Amino acid sequence: MRATDEPLRGSLLSPLAALLSVVMPGAGHMAIGARWRPAVIVAASANAMAMASMAGILWNVHGTADFGDVIADRATFLFVAVLLLVMAATRLWAALDSAWLSRPEAGHRVRTVTVGIVVVAVTVLGAVPFAVAAHYVWRTDQAVERVFSSDDAVTATPGAIATTAPTTTTVAASTTVAASTTSTSSTSTTSTTVPPFAGVDRVNVLLLGGDAGPGRYSLRTDSMIVVSIDPETGDTAMISVPRNLEDMPFPPGTPLAEEFPKGFDNLANSVYTYADKHRELAGGGDDAGAQAIKQGIAQLLGIPINFYVLVDMAGFVNIVDALGGIDIYVPKRVPTAGNPPRSKHPVPEYIQKGQQHMDGTLALSYARSREADSDYRRMERQRCVLAAIADAATPQALATGLPALMNAFGDAVRSDIPRDELGDLAQLIDRYVDAGGLKAVRTLHLAPPQIKPSNWDAEEVRQLVAEALKVPDLGDLENLPILADACIDPGT
């Protein structure tokens, strides 16, 4: 008969106590009669408070938009990591302590070793996942910090086309996104929630594909695509600007407009390099190159550019690989131009026609190739690759590839989207998906026969953009180019 102040012991009790402890710290001690130890009370209380706090944070997380709000608040997000560590530590201590207190009497060595192995396995399986989750949260926070801005975004605002009497349009930082001056008609929505970026007609994001391949002295933005989304309805249009556009204009009154009154004196994909070497012309920050392109694209298209997202086209190999690859329809056989920068394996001479599953190396080679046709077809392929990446970013893919994805994302992407607006951004993406996603995206290709990049008319370009952003009537849908027409197998 045991003393009343001694815990129960036995070969089965020890693993059972460990198991109960990883489920709920303190439960194992209660089972063996050691509930009133001060350390047990502290561990159980700490775990209970951590779980209650976590439940409070996650109570209103019902989708990606809500999760974006959690990530947007860095203090809250890091607090989640702390809570996970508390839950891991309390389970680790409680399991080991309860198992030790209830260990079998000395005697049978094999039995003792077996019990010890079972206890360690139970403890590891119960406590380590919390520690791993905390590590994922920390790594995600580090990647988000590298990618997104801690300051308010600077909206690039277009000025008048006339150069005889330019209007000064000094770009200033704002705590909110500047409203678009483009007139659009809105469609009804069944959503009763407040739309993201409330009060803004359209949110215009400039996607830049930077390419610093072999033989190039600096990064060139060979891919320039504006994604324009109505935050209320999710209506989306994509506008591609060719890399070889000449005489890129800048808003009147800006230092860049004074430096280049007749437009940039080189191709559009060289603006980033020039502004990066002369940062005083575009705000003086580390992202002066991207800010300069924002100004140029805004003036060219006649719409405000709220944010930019710069993707290292070589670094995006790891992003695609972390997602498990992308599925993309290739409308005709495309010759490749050798291995792209940072390729992980040799690429074939041709990418065959049909539905293809591509890893990062092959996807980059496909997006870069212009051997088959022209720069303008390459721009179309780049839009399809971006859309395929968005489709591949499923919750399952994000969960299984999170560590690699966070590293790749942090290394390859830079943006001036403020971190505290990630919740709005996630909600904006949800609206885009609800509106039809890829199958509903209208496209405008500023290339022949629409315009001639070496001799374009400013009024004509702005008129084309206004038409592309106008929500079409149902009768006009058949005459509008849809992104899915170039990216999805017509047989599906």
Blueprint of the fold:
Layout lengths: L12 H11 L3 H5 L6 H21 L5 H9 L1 H28 L7 H39 L55 E9 L8 E10 L6 E6 L13 H5 L11 H7 L10 H14 L5 E6 L3 H7 L3 E5 L3 E2 L14 E2 L2 E5 L1 H9 L6 H18 L2 H6 L1 H11 E3 L6 H13 L7 E4 L12 H12 L13 H5 L5
Parallel strand pairs: 1-4, 3-10
Antiparallel strand pairs: 1-2, 2-3, 4-9, 5-8, 6-7
Helix pairs in contact: 1-5, 1-6, 3-5, 4-15, 5-6, 6-14, 8-9, 10-11, 10-14, 11-12
Brief synopsis:
The protein has 492 residues and is an alpha+beta fold.
Describe the fold and architecture.
The chain has 492 residues and is α+β, with helices and mostly antiparallel strands. The chain has 2 domains: 13-147; 203-487, 3-Layer(aba) Sandwich (Aminopeptidase). It has 17 helices and 10 strands. The chain has helices spanning 13-23, 27-31, 38-58, 64-72, 74-101, 109-147, 255-259, 271-277, 288-301, 316-322, 360-368, 375-392, 395-400, 402-412, 422-434, 458-469, 483-487; strands at 203-211, 220-229, 236-241, 307-312, 326-330, 334-335, 350-351, 354-358, 413-415, 442-445. The strands form 3 sheets. It has a 6-stranded mixed beta sheet, with helices on both faces. A two-stranded antiparallel sheet has the order 5-8. A hairpin with a 6-residue loop joins β2 and β3 (236-241). α1 runs antiparallel to α5, α1 (13-23) runs parallel beside α6 (109-147) and α8 (271-277) packs across α9. The longest helix has 39 residues, at 109-147. The radius of gyration is 28 Å and the shape is elongated. The termini are far apart.
